[in-house]
Amino acid sequence: MKNNIEIGLLGLGTVGNGIIHILNHHKKELIAKTGATDVSVRKVLVRDLEKQRGENVNKEMVTTKAEDVLDDPNIDLVIEVMGGIDEAKQYIEKALRNKKHIVSANKDLIALHGDELLSLAEENNAEFLYEASVAGGIPILRSLTEGLASDRITKMIGIVNGTTNYMLTKMTKEELGYDEALQQAKDQGFAESDPTADLEGLDAARKMVILARLGFSASVRLDDVYLKGMNAVTAEDIDFGQQLGYTLKLIGIAHRNEEGIEVSVEPVFIPEDHPLASVHDEYNAVYVYGEAVGETMFYGPGAGSLPTATAVVSDVMSVIRQIRLGAATQVNVADKSETVLKKEEDIRAKYFIRLHVRDVAGAFKSLTSVFTSNKVSFEKLIQLPMESEELAEVVMVTHETSRTNFEQIINDIENLDVVETVKSRYRVEGGEADVPEQRDLALV
Amino acid sequence: MKNNIEIGLLGLGTVGNGIIHILNHHKKELIAKTGATDVSVRKVLVRDLEKQRGENVNKEMVTTKAEDVLDDPNIDLVIEVMGGIDEAKQYIEKALRNKKHIVSANKDLIALHGDELLSLAEENNAEFLYEASVAGGIPILRSLTEGLASDRITKMIGIVNGTTNYMLTKMTKEELGYDEALQQAKDQGFAESDPTADLEGLDAARKMVILARLGFSASVRLDDVYLKGMNAVTAEDIDFGQQLGYTLKLIGIAHRNEEGIEVSVEPVFIPEDHPLASVHDEYNAVYVYGEAVGETMFYGPGAGSLPTATAVVSDVMSVIRQIRLGAATQVNVADKSETVLKKEEDIRAKYFIRLHVRDVAGAFKSLTSVFTSNKVSFEKLIQLPMESEELAEVVMVTHETSRTNFEQIINDIENLDVVETVKSRYRVEGGEADVPEQRDLALV
């Protein structure tokens, strides 16, 4: 039983510094809770030896040679917070082959190569934990694999990208436009200088892949995710949704039923009294449905140096407990049965559609005939006059239909002479929205 | 390494039946996730041998003799869901001495004797888990001890009693009176026939004791909890609070700072945009503040057969993993440093006060002089005329002050000739409430 735990750290950015802060600041409690006599960072891989470091990092600790960390026999556990894919993967593989336990915050890597790395960890009797890779400070992976372990999870709905949630909150509450909201997110440090992966939903998709794998014990690949970014969202769409009782969020959905699994990331309207609708600003939340437990939700900061570092160090503590128990072997016995993805025609949802329709006799009849011939009715509809007297704004929410049928409907609508343009279309989730009576709507 | 895990069950009420349902219904996944070859219930202690049981309970399994469960060498793990204190304690102690692991859902027992039973478990190298004892299906204990293990928790605010939250939701949203709300809770199965422990806050206090102990690694006793039930809450109080932007909830608060620890349960006003304010009906939630992670919240069902059983079976799975790892020993190394409770004068909060004041010249001056002489100002105030022309309704929210100072203020107010009666008083938590501009208030 090893009592003095020594850590190797790959990367010393904001999260790396947060980890060193927590390890030092909470050392007494950390030792008390794990029973270790000491927990310390032995070596840190950095890019620049000369850079000025904080008081807890001395010259002897830093190195630019990965092998100083990966081959040091005194190091029990390697924390990877360097990011990127190829180099990080190579280092983690080497550390695992050297029988070192791994804690990683690298969602890109785990979404792409998680299965492979976990197998390698198992072969080497090493732990591999990655709580920080999804929803920063929220202990959601642990809740899925342990707290709700006895249940059968059927659905997860996640707000797992802080940048887009911050922007959508500003667009909803302060009626900012897309560009203004993005600029504010950058100014506040909630968007990176290149926010493409956030705006296009790729960042959220990586996290949903990790959630779906763990929650469903299934093999889900990034390519399996249906992906639609928030680039086309407008303030008008949000406003029309609100008039119908909905809030727009960039939502990841992972769902399974007897037909298979679906994973998607797209802007989705949810009823404004749904718990996810009150997740504001840069906060994240994951709503989990289990057959037995029903509805639960886990809410907290999705990013940031200290929240992410908390998740990493909590993983470190789990590993230390395992080391101290002399049980440094995962009971990694996930269901290896084949993963079946739902067919497009089995992916069912309600949809919000916004159209500009020519204000001519028979226009409405042509429109409704498209729905009738595709066997879908709509549960809500607003028609509003527009400044141009020749056009009318039509907003509708359909009853549930399949994705293939919905695409057919959109195609048919676009071919109607009376339809000038399909302005926007969104999936609708989370049950029925109540349209407050006092709202001044031209409901048909 | 034992691969075939046999369970003894003490009690076969709604939760007990839920446990048997989940163990059977999810057996395949349970086995896959723990690596056990089988997990089954061997013996069940019941009161009545003749009672008709479900298809998963046969005659050979049930017994009325506790020793058939506690002394059976084949039983690895005992689940206690019989409730009550003395008998349950005695059985658990015997099982622990026989080196059996324990999973319990018994908050009354754990709030009173948790420390003692955990020590006995440690002596006998047995696991003792009790996730189901707090907030039913929400994996909150695990989140505190593992997910947020690396952080220093400073505050927990919990809605941990479903009965009172259901009633307060009805009183708030549908403007029901207290008695009507209680009757509905009974009709819906959310209140027991004798709801005293719920209404007086005792049930919530037990859960807060368990949360405070785990979250703060401290010894907190039930007697240490400041307790005020919801028996005196009126629909008018709720309505006046709403006018000031607050929602009333029966809230458990556990807070620690350099002055010590406080634990309380009482009806509290929180700002209506606080995440806890949108926890409706019978749902529970625990808001957790950690120094590093910041704000997190855990939301879900607080009771019910299957949610509670989910928590129990998840604990069972943790124990099985430990058994299979051959590591059946807790690394139970909580901080044993002495627990210091805050003094009354160090417990600080804002307060809501509602008064009936005689409508005479100088009344307001006498009232404000009480606050001035006690060095507290108020941040919000409404004065409204009443049907009786001689009286005015005055509602105010103070700035933060100590509990002792607040009691002095109430005492001074009650002694004023111009005050007819102090109608109600509530603690206010969770930051500033925005008073929406469009509200028609006589704000002074």
UniProtKB/TrEMBL annotation, chains A, B:
Gene Ontology molecular function terms on file: homoserine dehydrogenase activity; metal ion binding; NADP binding
Record: active site: 207 (proton donor)
SUPFAM superfamilies documented for this protein: ACT-like (SSF55021), Glyceraldehyde-3-phosphate dehydrogenase-like, C-terminal domain (SSF55347), NAD(P)-binding Rossmann-fold domains (SSF51735)
One Pfam family recorded for the sequence: NAD_binding_3
Co-factor requirement: a metal cation
Keyword check for Heme: no
InterPro entries: ACT-like_dom_sf (IPR045865), ACT_dom (IPR002912), Asp/hSer_DH_NAD-bd (IPR005106), HDH (IPR016204), HDH_cat (IPR001342), HDH_CS (IPR019811), NAD(P)-bd_dom_sf (IPR036291)
CDD domains in the record: ACT_HSDH-Hom (cd04881)
EC code(s) of this entry: 1.1.1.3
Domain ACT, first and last residues per copy: 352-427
UniProt cross-references to PROSITE patterns, sorted A to Z: ACT, HOMOSER_DHGENASE
Residues binding L-homoserine: 192
Involved pathway(s): Amino-acid biosynthesis; L-threonine biosynthesis; L-threonine from L-aspartate: step 3/5; Amino-acid biosynthesis; L-methionine biosynthesis via de novo pathway; L-homoserine from L-aspartate: step 3/3
Enzyme class: oxidoreductase
Keywords: Amino-acid biosynthesis, Metal-binding, Methionine biosynthesis, NAD, NADP, Oxidoreductase, Sodium, Threonine biosynthesis
Gene3D superfamilies: 3.30.70.260, Dihydrodipicolinate Reductase, domain 2, NAD(P)-binding Rossmann-like Domain
Reactions catalysed according to its record: L-homoserine + NADP(+) = L-aspartate 4-semialdehyde + NADPH + H(+)
Superkingdom of origin: Bacteria
GO process annotations (BP): methionine biosynthetic process; threonine biosynthetic process
Binding residues for NADPH: 107
Homology family: Belongs to the homoserine dehydrogenase family.
PANTHER family: HOMOSERINE DEHYDROGENASE (PTHR43331:SF1)
Protein name as it appears in the record: Homoserine dehydrogenase
Species of origin: Salicibibacter cibi
